[in-house]
Each structure stands twice: as structure tokens, then as C-alpha cells.
Amino acid sequence: MSLFSRYRVLLPIASLTLLMAVTFYVQPRTLSYFGLNLLFNLAVPIALATIAQMLIIMVNDIDLGIGAFVSLTACVTATFLEQSPLMGTVMLVALIIAYALMGAMIHALALPAIVVTLGMSFVWGGLALFLLPSPGGASPTWLREIMTVKPPLIPMALVAACLIAGVTHWLIAHSGIGTVLRGIGGNAEAVRRAGWPLIRLKALAYGLAGLFGVLAGMTLVGLTTSADANIALRYTLLSIAGVILGGGEFIGGKVSPVGAVIGALTLALAASFLSFMRLSPDWQIGAQGAILIAVLAARLLFRRRDGARR
Amino acid sequence: MPSILRRPWIWAWLAATATFAVTVALGSGRGAAGLAYAALSFGAFAAIVGVGQMLVISLGPGNVDLSIPATMTLSATLALKAMDGVPGTELLGLGVALLVGLGTGAANFALILLLRLPPIIATLAASLIYQSLAIWSNRGLRVKPPEALAEFATGRTLDIPNVALVGLLLSLAVWVALERGVWGRWLLAAGQNPRAARLAGVPVERVRATAYLTVSVFAAVAGFLLASFSGGAALNMGAEYLLMSIAVVIIGGTSIAGGFSNVPGIWGAAFFMFLVVSMLNTYGAGAGARSVLTGVIIIGIVIAASTKRNHA
Amino acid sequence: MLEREAPKNPPLVTLTDVAKHFGAVAALKDVNLAIRAGECVGLVGHNGAGKSTLVSIINGSLRASEGRVEFPLSAADDALAAGVRSVFQELSLCPNLSLAENLRIAHTGMRGWGWRRRAGTEISQSLDALFPSHGIAAGALIETLSIAQRQMVEVAIRFAPLGGKPQLVILDEPTSSLDAGIANQLLDAVRRFCARGGAVIFISHMLGEIFRVADRILVMKDGRIVADEPADHFTRQGLVDFMGHVAAEPETLQTESRRELGEIVISQGGLQARRGEIVGLSGLAGHGQAEALATLYLDATSAWRNPGNPPMVFVAGDRKRDGILPLWSILNNMSLSLLSATARWGLVDQVSERRIGDEWKRRIGIRTESLSNPILSLSGGNQQKALFARALVSRAPIVVMDDPMRGVDVGTKQDVYALIRAEAAKGRTFLWYSTETEEVCQCDRVYVYRDGAISAALSGDELTEARILEASFEMQESSA
Questions:
Q1: Longest distance between any two alpha carbons in chain B, whole Å
Q2: Hey, are the CB atoms on C94 and A190 less than 8 Å from each other?
Q3: Are B126 and A120 within 8 A, CB to CB?
Q4: Chain C residue closest to B178 (CA)?
Q5: Any chain A CB within 8 A of the CB of C106?
Q6: Which one of B221, C72, C223, C356 is least enclosed by Cβ atoms within 10 Å?
Q7: For residues B36 and C468, what is the distance between their CA atoms, to the nearest angstrom?
Q8: How far is C30 from C193, CA to CA, in rounded Å?
């Protein structure tokens, strides 16, 4: 058993470090408070959305609707939460409950999650269009202040990322209930036989995902100060990529919250890095794809070694 | 329950028929024949990419091609550029489109096989590169398809849209390969249990490779036809076909768990997806309501199909 | 031996007139049973005799269609509360979690800070008590363990306190992946557990194990308990008679005069086989036999080339993992390896598929009305026959078999032995890995594996159970 498969978080750390080193080498000015702030500017909402996706992947499902959901919560934040905080809060809580119910329904009727979440993405997207037919809205002031706070030494984005990683690591990797949830991904039948109510656990996993999705939408509005119905659609794919970059696997409950946050940071950095490189806009998207492939290819080196030993 | 209700494709067709009836009853403005013609035209594109996606999804959990939109755009862009609107270059354009499809399919599968990436991630990352290629080659360019090609794509034969005929031909080929062919047996065996299939002598990698090549080639053909149909390639022309291709596969009754596929259902689902939008347009629903209802209906059908399947 | 006349306590569990129907099929009929503290009950019967249904009703995973299941001693409402634990054949561990975390899942009541440490202590103590010198760390992930180690962990979790005390432990073929040494430790632990007042239901197809641990034996046949008596009232022969099969002593494959063997057709990694030869692979479970066969097969075949007439075919023993295609009919499962050889224009020749299927259904004796039925409608033994048929219908000269008799009843075994003998006589070569020593003793030649390498090649008069055991254990005894 290699070091890397025992501690699945090592590889994401290595790839993030390498990418940062290259960035600093190419553009030494980024190695500063403001430089780092700029590099990781949008990392927090991506990290939160990645955690949400990870919670779903953890129970062997996949969420193709998280991007639309984050867009919707961003729209709620930029409209209702800003104008009437109570109403906005109620709506956001209702959305979290809707996510939990979706999880319960997927389990109770044995539906394929990929399809239900796909269908729900149309629903979330439609609701977002109701709220904000055209881009607009505004960030609640308190939210804006939190997101632009300037802690000493380390930029907000990195502080928040560490906080998210710490909290979710405790919740998922360490706590008893997190262990049971990962157990569902590993062998749901065993968890059921032991007497756990699977439907409630599934609802819990989805409800937590909904919570992190809501947080992603809120922080996104805090950063961008306005919203539109399509603001976070690309988060669906980004979050899946972040989970895998973070050493997670699609089945078997093999996920790492710390890795997922680092994966999200890597994705955010890759985007910033390319704009620093003054790469032609034509190739920016493609270069992101290439970086994604390169980082994932690094996993192979360690897989091969494992395979040979087995 | 009558045996026909146990057919996995029946739900998509029932839903499509019902939607069709409601839309016509409400008076869509173009009558039943006009609506059917439009459904055949627009449904054909969804059906072509859906049939391709179905092959990949039949390979089992985790297998999916997320690069369909990018492949469609890239193939359309490069093909139109190669033809440059010059009459008589239609076959050249088709050739370019097919080569793009083979190329992206081969690249996708190479990533999956050689780098052992999960297909979702491999096709997603690769699609970003295809997208860049398309942007780069499409820069400031708005080429029209050659006249004859545009006429073919928007024309009809025996009152059936030509694009639908192409789609039906491709679907028929896939149907024969799946239902009667050795390759189909291999594909479905690999989809149920790749390890067992390999140990039974099935050339699993060969089957997987051909499935990934086929979906890309189908997407390339769909892109080529769509650009010819709509008078040019646009960078976002494939966007709606990502979710669409997956939705028609699932609504059509193909098992997301792999090892079971269903061609007729794809067409029912493709019609249905088009007709739902028409119906809601007829109602005068806004974009938001249309989207919400589409989602609710997709989920409703999945629930209906799954509960029936469980009781059957 | 236990003082059998002593138990005046109420029984742990009683079943009164229990029956279980699946649709029209009666899986269990008229079952009356009481199990008391301190008893070790051996449960034997053929596949489909109702053993699994019976224990599922006792542990509460199935509900009886008729009759009552009660737990008088604990007066508990359900099996979980009454301290009934089950070790299932298919393991109920989460491979992505550690030993301690798996124990946490089994122990639903564990709460509060430091659970990880408490769970680690609990699983370690349980393992230590059952399998001294097991060498498995409480923090290790299950997926990094061997099959045998996983089975040990599974057993240890069920014997751990889990916030209460196990009263009745159901062990369903618990030694199937264990080597003899570990299996003996388990049998001893079961005896100690019963001596301390615990009860055990022990299911095994190895009658030797049953006689070693059980003080009472239940024999099931066709959903009924046909015998329920103290173990010393039975002989092995008597048990087999009760189970209802005539052929108790396995015929050997070598009854006929030695066949003429052909040229060497396999020579890889010290393994050699001749045309028409039946070569056995033996040794303790998990010492590299399955890997050697898989490598041999995967090297000889391709994941890219059209197989045509393949050089080699594979018979899986782990049916679910390696063999069965669960969505398909029996016929499609049987014909899979034959398709490309009989295809025309890439299309399946359905006429010859059907004809060959019917022929082999008859030859190998698959019990079904129609080959169009789903493969999962067959019993385990008949599924295995379908997998044999899949391999044998092809014209492949070499047949590789990876412990194919796992969980197969005696009747099926006899049918298949005869078939193998006939096919070998026609010039086919068989490579046969088996965990049952008496099975490999019937081969022409046997390679014994130890620590991933061949430790002995035995044939003719050397080929005895004693020599195989010697070659399997030698090193371990000297180092112990």
C-alpha cells in the first residue's frame, strides 16, 4: 500500500503546490497578500460547491444539478435575502429541506440520482429565472463585508478555505455520523443491516449538500455583488472535477473533504494562472482542460505502482 | 399488465403522444401535421446524439460522454470552414465532420484507457480543449453551408424531414448491432459486469473503444447537420445537447446501471422533449415556467417508469 | 461436552410452526425449533434446502409467513435486541472504512467523544480473543486486507460486545475463505463461546467442521427440518443420507486406467500442463493460485482482438464477481464465449445458439423449464453449471477453473466431475484450482502453492492429502 493511496490528500496537495510554484515563478508579484487574494478570489464558492458535490458522491450518487442550485441560491440571496432577510432565510432553509427530500425520494423509490438531479437542475434554473429574469440584484451588506474582510497575513479566501476544510474534515472524516455516511458509500447493505435508517441518512447527506450549496450561492453573491440565473451553471462540472482532483472516487465512499477543498483551490488557481499568463482568450478554456488532464494524469503514476504490488 | 406496458420504451412514447395530443388540442398554430414535422426535424438531432450517448451509458455506471456539445461545435465549425460555402464540397465537409468525430472519440478513449481517468472527468476535460479549438478556428467567422447542403438539411423526402431520415438510418444500424450483432452482446455483457465479460473472452476494451468512437462520430454528424440546418455554426450550438442527450437516454428506458439499452425509447423521448417545450410555448409560459415544468416532467417520467419496472 | 440435560432456562429463540412462502414457492414449512444458551447447533442441508431462509427468519431480515418467532430468554421484541448476530457469506463490511469505523457502524448505540479509540480497542480485543496473532491493525482500511483477513474481521465484529453481549451468533460458511490454521482457531473460539453460555448456529458444507463444533445437528431438506438430534447420534454417512443424496463418497476421476497424455500445452511460471491432462492447483487459500490462473488466462486472451476460437476459457468460482451476467437469460449467459466463433457477418447465429444451448442443458443437467428464463432464477449450483457450459461449449483446448465448486451441492459436483472426465478424455486440458483437498486429489497432477509460488508438484502415488498439506504448511510449522 503506497503512501499516496493511504493518504489520498497528498497528491492534491502536491499538485496545488506545483501549480503555485509555477505561478510564482512566472509572475513573482503574485507572491503577496494581494496577489494571493486575486489568485484565489473565487475559490470559496467553488470550494463550498465542491463539498456539496462530494457529499453526494460520498453516498455513491452524483449531482448534475448543483450548478443550477447554487445559481438559484445566489438569486435568492441577491433578491429576497437582501430586501427582506427573514423571507430570504426562510426560502434558503426551504431549499435545503427540498434537497433533503430529494435525497429521501431518490432512496425510497430507488431512482437514479444522476437523472433526478438532472431533472431538478431544470427546476432550479426555472425558479432562478422567475426571481431574476435578467442579471441584477445586490449583495446584502453584511455578506459583502464578510467576504471582503482583510485578515492579517493571509487573505480571506485562504482563511475561509482552511475553515471549510477543517469543519468538513471533522464532520465527514472524523465524526461518528460522517463515518456512517461514508459507510453508505462503501456498503449500504451493511449499514442497513446494522439497523441504521438509510432513508434518513440519505436525506441527511443531501440536506448537508443543500446547506453547502446555499453557502456557495451566498458567498458567490458576496464576492460578485449581484447575481443572474446562470451565474454558477459551470459549478456542476467544476465541483465534480474538484472532488476527483481532491483524490475522491465516484463510487465506494472514498472521498476526502480536505482534498476536495484543495481540488477546488487548484481549479480556481488554474483559471487565475491562465489569465496571468496572458494566454490568448481562445485558449484559456482549453488550457484549463489540459491542466486538469495533467494533474489527473499524475494520479496514474501512483496507481500503477499500487497495481504492480497487488 | 399487458406485455406492451412492460416494454421499457413505452413510457417515453406514451408521454410523447399525450403531449402531442394536448399541444394539438390547444392549437399550436401549425396543426397536427406541422407539429409532427417539426418534432421529427428537431427531435432528430436529440435522437442522434441520444443513441450515441446510450451506447456509452450502456457500458455501465460512470460511463458517459460529456464532450458531445464540444464535438458538435468543433465538427460543425471545421466542416463549414473546409467547405467555405463552395458548392460541390459537401462530401468534403462530411468527411471533415467524420474525422473530427473519430478524432475526439479516439482522444476521449485514449484519456480513459491510458490515463485511467473516470470517463466523466476525461470527456469533460477533453471537451474544454475541443471547445478552445472551435473558438480558435471560428474566430470572427460566419460561414454559410453550401446551398445544396442547406437545402438537404432543411428539405424532406416523402414528407419526412431528411435529417430525421439520417437519424433513423443511424438508429436502425445501432439497433441491428445491439439486437442481432455479436458486438451488441459484447457491449451489454461488458455493461453488466466488465470483469465477468473479459473472463468470458469478450474483448472489452475493443467494445468500449468502439462505443466511445461511435458516440463522438454521431455527435459530429449531428453537429454537421445542425449547422447545415440552421445556416451556420455557432459556438454555443451544442450546449443544450449535453443534458438533452442524457435525458433522452434515461427517459427512453435505458438502464443507467448499464447492460441494457433501448433504441426506440430514445426517439420517443426526443419527441417528448421537443413537444413539452412546444406545449408550454403554446400555453404562453415564460422561460422559467418552461424550465421548471420540463424538470418536473422528467422526474415524473423517471418515477413512473421505475415504479412500473419494480412491479413488473 | 456440554451438560445437555441442564438447560432449564427459557430458550434464546423459539420458532413455532414457522413457514415462509415466496409467491407460490414454500421455502420453509412446519419449522419448530428452540435454541438455548450454551448450544452450538450445526445446520446442514443442500443448496435450496432452506438453510438461508431459516437463519434469515431467526435474525429478522425475513418475516415468517406463518408461525411465531420469539426470544423468551431476553423477552426482546426483535432479533437485534435479543443479541442475535449474523456473519453472512457475502461480507457486510464497508471496504472504504477502517476496522474501528466498521465496528462503529455495527454498534449503532456508540456515542460521544473518543469513539474511535473505544471502537479500536473493542475490535482489537475481539480479534485477539478469536484469532491470536492475527496481526491486523484496528486502523487499517478493510480494502487493504486479504479476503481471509476480511472474513476474520467480519467474525470478530459479530463476536464483539457492541454495547451488549452477543447471545446467538449465526455463522454461514464462516471458514470458506480461511486456511486450515485460522479455521481451527475459529472453531476453538466457537467452542469457548458456547462454553461461556453463548449459542451458535453453524452452517458449513464441511462435515468435519460440523462434527468438531456442534453438539446438536439440524438437517434440512426441502424446506423442512428432517433431523434434529445431538451430534453424537450421527455419523458422516448418516448425515449425508438424511440430506438425501445417494452418492456420498465422491467417485474419483482416476478410476479408469491412466489416460495417454499429449504434448505440453502450457508452460508458464513453473506450471506445466499436457494435452488431456487435469492439473490441480492447491495449497492454502489466498497463496497465489487464483492470481496465477487469472494471469495465465489474461495473458493468453486479449481485450482487443476478436476472440474467434479462443485458446483458453475460464470458469469462475466467484459467480457474482467473475461470472454471471445478471440481466440476461440462461441461454445468453451460456452462449457468450461462443458468439464470435459462430457469427456470420458479425450477427449472432441464433439458431445454432439455441441448438447448442439445448444440447448442453441436457448434457450438464441444468434444472429449468426454459433457457429463456433469467439466469438469476436458477439456484447457485445451476448457475454454476451454466458457467461450466459457457466454457465448455467453446472449442477452447484449455479450460481454466478458479475454485468453481464453491458453495455447490454434492449432486452438481458429481455431474460436473463426470463432464470434466469426459472432456479431458477428448483431449482438453483442465487447470483446476480448488480449496477442497479431496477434489484436487482427483487430478492427474497437482501444484501446491505457498506464498505466491509453487512449493511442490505432485503426481501419481505422491498425490495424497497428506503430501499436499505438508507442502502447504511446511514453512509455517518450522517458523511457528
A1: 58
A2: yes
A3: no
A4: C347
A5: yes
A6: C72
A7: 75
A8: 30
- What are the structural domain ranges in chain B? 3-311
Residue C182 corresponds to which cell in the numbers above? 485460522
Q: Which of B181, B196, B201 is facing C346, going by the closest CB pair?
A: B181
Indicate yes or no: CB of B183 within 8 angstroms of CB of C346. Answer: yes
| Cβ contact B196–C322 (<8 Å) | yes
Count of positions (residues) in chain C: 480
Rg (CA), chain A: 19
Helices A198-224, A85-108: axis angle to 10 degrees equals: 140
Chain B residues 274-303 with CB within 8 Å of chain A: 286-296, 298-299, 302-303
Q: Cβ contact (<8 Å) for B287 and A119? A: no
* Cβ–Cβ < 8 Å for B223, B237: yes
CATH of domain B3-311: 1.10.3470
The closest CB to that of B192, out of C310, C327, C339, belongs to C327
pLDDT tens sequence across C120-167:
888 998 988 888 888 888 888 888 887 788 888 988 988 888 877 888
Choose among B197, B309, B277, B209: nearest CA to B28. Answer: B277
Give the residue from chain A lying closest to C158, CA to CA: A194
Residue B208's CB is within 10 A of a number of other CB atoms, namely 25
Whole-Å CA distances, C159 to B195, C105, C165: 34, 14, 8
pLDDT in tens, chain C (480 residues): 444 455 467 888 888 888 888 766 678 888 888 898 888 999 887 656 788 888 888 888 888 888 888 888 877 788 878 888 888 766 688 888 989 899 888 888 777 778 888 888 889 989 888 888 888 888 888 888 877 888 889 889 888 888 778 888 998 888 877 877 888 888 998 998 888 888 999 988 777 788 888 889 988 887 888 888 888 888 777 776 776 643 334 444 444 445 667 777 777 777 888 888 888 888 766 677 888 888 888 888 888 888 878 888 899 888 888 888 988 888 889 888 888 888 888 888 888 888 988 888 888 878 788 888 888 887 777 888 888 888 888 888 899 998 888 767 777 777 788 888 888 888 889 999 887 777 788 888 888 887 778 888 888 878 877 777 667 755 433 333
Q: Please state the separation of Cα A97 from the chain's center in Å.
A: 19
Domains of chain A, each with CATH number or no CATH: 3-309 (1.10.3470)
Instruction: Give the closest residue to C79 by CA, choosing from C54, C111, C50.
Output: C54
Q: Is A154 on the interface with B (CB under 8 A)?
A: no
Give, in degrees to the nearest 5, the angle at Cα C46 between C43 and C48. Answer: 105
Start-to-end Cα distance in chain A: 9
Side chain identity at residue A81, one-letter code: L
β-strand partners of C220: C45, C225
Residues 6+ apart with CB under 8 A from A54: A172, A239, A243, A246, A248, A255, A257, A260
- Determine the Cα–Cα distance for residues C299 and C268; give it in Å rounded to an integer: 10
Cβ count within 10 A of residue B142:
10
Beta-carbon count within 10 A of A63 CB: 30
Q: How far is Cα C151 from Cα C146, in angstroms, rounded to an integer?
A: 9
In this structure, what are the phi and psi dihedrals at residue B120, rounded to the nearest 5 degrees? -55, -50
Positive or negative: CA dihedral A188, A193, A198, A201: negative
| Domains parsed from chain C with CATH numbers | 13-243 (3.40.50.300), 264-479 (3.40.50.300)
Torsion of CA A28, A31, A33, A36, to 10 degrees: 100
A102, with CB counted inside 10 A (0-12, 13-18, 19+), is: buried
Task: State how beta strands C40-45 and C199-203 pair.
Answer: parallel
